[in-house]
Amino acid sequence: MIIAVNTRLLLWNKMSGIGWYTYHTLKHLTHMYPEHRFIFLFDRPFDDQFIFGSNVKPVVVYPPARHPFLYYIWFNYSIVPYIKRYKADVFFSPDGFLSLNLKNIPSIPVIHDINFEHFPKDFPFWSRQYYCHYFRRYAHLARRIITVSEFSKQDIATTYGVPLEKIDVVYNGANEEFKPLSEETKIEVRNRYTAGKEYFLYVGDLIPRKNVARMILAYEAYRKSAGTDAKLLIVGKSMLVTSDIMEVYNRSSYRDDIIFAGRLPQHELVKVMGSAKALLYVSLFEGFGLPIVEAMKAHVPVITSNVSSMPEIASDAALLVDPLSVDSIKNALERIEKDDQLRQMLIQKGEMRSAQFTWMNTSKGVWASIEKALSTPPKA
Fold first, then answer.
1. Which residue from 72, 98, 70, 77 is spatially nearest to 6, judged by alpha carbons?
2. Strands, DSSP E only, in the chain?
């Protein structure tokens, strides 16, 4: 079999969540199925570390697709001749984008979530216009759809009017680098970031959907009532100017204890995660919520939201809060602070829960979906 793959998000030292999903899934797939050939379609020069074996053929196709107008050109025109030239049996797209001009070749997108349909203001104007217009078409064009939670499956089916049986749920894996750290390492990390103090950690973009402003308000309320000096460490790069976050931050009596660390490389994030007192991840909407599982693998307790996919992913291994309630978030922070028995229970349950989320399992699920797509006749 010949599998053409959209690998435009494989960018060494610049990978975000979907880039890492692409990396880990393809690395396992190419090793698990060496008898099949993979055509990796890059939109710029690639790093040799992404060529995982002799069964991978890299192809650079211009122009670089980093703007909605260029998305359209790259997917609908640039890559099509190459996919046909190499006689691909299937087109696999880990970031959900498809070509409208590959109607005779089965296409399988991974639509991680459709948060742009529910929170369009989190996206620049042209990006949200593109996503909201084309992802509906992709969902109907796809032979099968892969998504990362039962919540996203229901959301995609309901919003786009596609049959549930067309959508396969394949959970994300989590990097095995996330693991318990020694006390010595934790002390070194805390000295570097928070003047030696314990800290609650948030990891993610600084956009309204992530609920960072309300998280800061809850942290302030917790500090006033708990009488501790634990800090709040915020890791992430802002996609848009978020005046609500800066307004709440600038008004806070504890702004000197709220540290914005920016975006961190993976090896540093592993240390920062493993040294946290707890992960505070109270987003308003997630298709999966990978930091939840990463924290569990690092034996770090998790506080997360009781909405969208987060209860599904966390199960009973996290404290669930109402993300719209500052008091609910604050109370969870206090429980982590005061109840060591609870912390240990969450760590133990998190370790067991996170064992289910491996990239090997993800890759097996993706391959099963590819095989289903090839055995499913095209829609008349």
1. 98
2. 2-6, 37-42, 56-60, 90-93, 107-109, 145-147, 167-169, 199-203, 231-235, 258-262, 278-281, 302-305, 319-321
pLDDT more than 90, % of the chain: 90
Burial class (CB in 10 A: 0-12, 13-18, 19+), 55: middle
Q: Which amino acid is at 152?
A: S
Domains: count for the chain = 2
What range does the domain containing 233 cover?
Answer: 183-354
Q: Has residue 178 been placed in a domain?
A: no
Domain membership of residue 152 (yes or no) is: yes
* Alpha-helical runs (H) found in 122-207: 125-141, 150-160, 183-193
Q: What is the pLDDT of residue 347?
A: 98
Q: Are 335 and 275 within one domain?
A: yes
Alpha-carbon dihedral angle through residues 358, 200, 207, 73, given to the nearest 10 degrees: -30
Q: Which two tokens stand for residue 188?
A: 């070194």
In this predicted model, what pLDDT tens digit does every residue of 314-328 receive, in sequence order? 999 999 999 999 999
pLDDT by residue (tens digit) across 327-359? 999 999 999 999 999 999 999 999 999 999 999
Identify whether residues 193 and 324 lie together within a single domain.
yes
378 secondary structure, DSSP code:
P
